[in-house]
Fold:
Amino acid sequence: MRVLVLGGTTEARQLAGLLAGDARFQATLSLAGRTQVPAPQPLPTRVGGFGGAQGLVDYLRAESVQAVIDATHPFADRISANAEAACATAGVPLAVLTRRSWTAREGDDWRLVRTMDAAAGALTDLPDTVFLTVGRQELEPFLDLDRRFLVRVVDSPDILPAGAVVVLDRGPYTLDSEIALMRAHGVGTLVTKNSGGDATAAKLDAARALGLPVVMVDRPPAGTAPRFYAASDAMAWLAAHLSPTAA
Ligand code: NAP
Structure:
């Protein structure tokens, strides 16, 4: 069975590992090409956009793709919308492999917002230093704010608020290292997207331990495709779509 995995996440890499070891599937991993040094992948990989939903339809047909797993980041809403539209047009089954949202716990002080602009607006009454962990493509709303910023990103950003201190890192992080970083930079407020997952959750534990407010940007709305939270469950869904001759 020919499978396309839309990736760029830990979840996609986990699924790629399972697919690479299963002779029933001939899978390709697709990356957007945003990361300068992408992690090694266990599957044949193609890099770059398809050219919108129609470009993806053309790719699915040209490559005779029989199933698509959208394992992109929860905030990668354009490629996910394109995948829904393209799979519907091409008649290819689609499922989503993602991670569960974080939820507030006792002791958390979360300010929930829907957009990055709203996150920037919510900072008015919150203390410096503002720790931005929103990704290098989401910094624009913070550019004109006269605040002290600590910005953590995987790759160097093209734009930055004036005077921002940048930390280049990709995690995973520990509670101790997050507390140490926040203390060292005098962090007073954390800003994050609700990406979910374990690899970067320690910042929320650290904010709780230090009594810091968190501006939490909510996820974009989910589509209608079936959703899985474990690579093994996505594999089971793929296996259920195998044609009798391929099984
Ligand atoms: P996006 O806004 O949803 O997508 C923008 C465009 O990038 C898409 O229309 C598509 O171009 C191309 N694209 C995105 N993901 C692709 C993929 N896996 N394979 C081929 N083309 C892809 O996406 P984004 O938020 O910029 O994220 C880009 C990549 O980084 C994704 O793979 C995502 O999983 C990963 N990532 C994103 C975040 C985040 O916070 N957004 C965090 C970590 C990792 P065409 O229209 O030309 O096909």
User: Anything to note?
Assistant: The radius of gyration is 20 Å.
